[in-house]
């Protein structure tokens, strides 16, 4: 909870274990004395090709070593390209900063010949300004992008192989990180992320077999790093939290290639990694939804350097800068930042350190007052703001001294409902989560969503809702306010800016070559020489000369996704649901507007449906229940079983009343989002030739009267959902939101 995308205020020791927990070798929940994991829902196979009783790393190794780029949907591949480009932007920003120049002096530049030394330097540069992107779960790219990039030249990787290596590394590292995310280390302090990322990124690039993967993972996770808050929050020691585990992972790869062995069951074993690094071990998170639940599409992209827990507040401050035109630091009486428990917790930790002009970059990154003050006064927050002479400006520290941070339970509720940073893990933990959260922070426990919410089965609409509200009180009596549900670039794309645009802008703003952007855009078509050129162009410094490429034929592009045309087309359905989710989110927010111009927030969320029309909560509950029924039918079609659909349970007044009376609107919106994602994900797996599958349909009206009974082709049900039903519900939600409140 509190802390920068990292750890609780204290780390797990015998003195602060959760109630009822001791230091003996107790088995993780759900595991028997043999160390075997349960098979999962229904006891079926998980798609790895390994026996259900096999160790987690063995099963991940079998899956990851065979993973191909065509296994991932196009939207996931698009994220891979944005992730790489954004990471390269972070690298350029890092190396251009005075701290980055010291990294180069100590460890060399990223274009040196030895890839192991190159990735050591690069991992420090991409982390040093906290300009890295985040996923569920972890700050993956320091290993999952950096390792394949630095090994691409020596291994002769083409663009498809590079993308495949990053994909395999992402999915392996994120899953292992998620398994331990309810514990003392999260975010950047979770060095173990990069043990997995380095192993998977290099071995997939080398096309190594599953045996080598399993032994390398077993070796690396036998010696995980344990970071200490004393150095992490306020000194340059933070630079090692990714670089050192990357080196351990690469060393484990060297050994495994020549026959050295590691314990395959070290993740889940009673004397293994999760027992020491997780308060609530979630080994099932490492294997959930292999091949369908893509962690790569949970990425949030940073447009400012600094902790993700400060991003939304900085966005608000940037917005308010224009309204402060003509006002100086002396005109600001007070700045109040309201945020979730993550933001408030980070502020508590950062204030334990004296932060001023002479502070380290790490300390400045975690200082919400300095970052907000800078954005208010300048209209931006740039890498240069984390160095002299910018940090010497007294007006910034004058305003920073007047910044006060408050916890807003409503914003915590939104944050804990979202996929990242903890929501999915909390849902996986179920009833166990409350005791863990309450032991850390009772305020956060009081905002937990209901324990019966299930984990997401599809991440296409994953969210990271770390919102903030910033109020500036001026000495002349004016009050300016801005509010954000999530940061610009956060997962869900609620701000309307696509991740490719953000990644491109970040790279170019930090001196990146436009030709590198073009090469990345068509990365899957590049040959090995073009990949080498891309890496050199993207990371070249002012003193590095990269000549023009020789004229010649462009490498032929590989046609991605040979399955195209065999699966049902879901574009119209996805577009319809995307509009619905936006409208539902607006309904949950109550239509609050920013008041950067000094006006009070306009009251919104008017509950004025047309005469006889259902209201917002009824609509949300009905949609959530309907999609659950449709998902059940989709599974029947997928499995070749006799399919049926009865909408009665979604129209039942008692069922809807029970749902709307026991949860708030935020939870209803969350149910709509996750049930829609599950349904669309299932539709995407259904073959074209199954569209004609007859479905026995029974439709009833509000009063339970039968409206229709008969057989309808599955494809027609999906078409009506995409073109009629969902757009109709969306328009109703928008109409209600636009309606004025009755006095």
Describe this structure in words.
Helices cover 47% and strands 6% of the residues. The chain has 30 helices and seven strands. The N terminus is likely disordered. It is globular and about 75 Å long. The protein is an alpha/beta fold and 743 residues long. It has a four-stranded mixed β-sheet. Among the domains are: 244 residues, 2-methylcitrate dehydratase PrpD, CATH 1.10.4100.10; 168 residues, Four Helix Bundle (Hemerythrin (Met), subunit A) (Up-down Bundle), CATH 1.20.120.450.
Quick rundown:
This protein is α/β, with parallel strands linked by helices.
Protein topology:
Layout lengths: L55 H9 L9 H23 L1 H10 L7 H13 L13 H4 L1 H10 L3 H21 L12 H14 L4 H11 L8 H4 L7 H18 L15 H5 L30 H14 L10 E8 L1 H10 L10 H6 L1 H11 L15 H7 L2 E5 L1 H9 L5 H7 L2 H9 L1 H4 L22 E7 L4 E6 L14 H11 L4 H8 L6 H12 L31 H19 L26 H23 L4 E4 L1 H4 L1 H10 L2 H21 L8 E7 L5 E8 H25 L5
Parallel strand pairs: 1-2, 5-6
Antiparallel strand pairs: 1-3, 3-4, 6-7
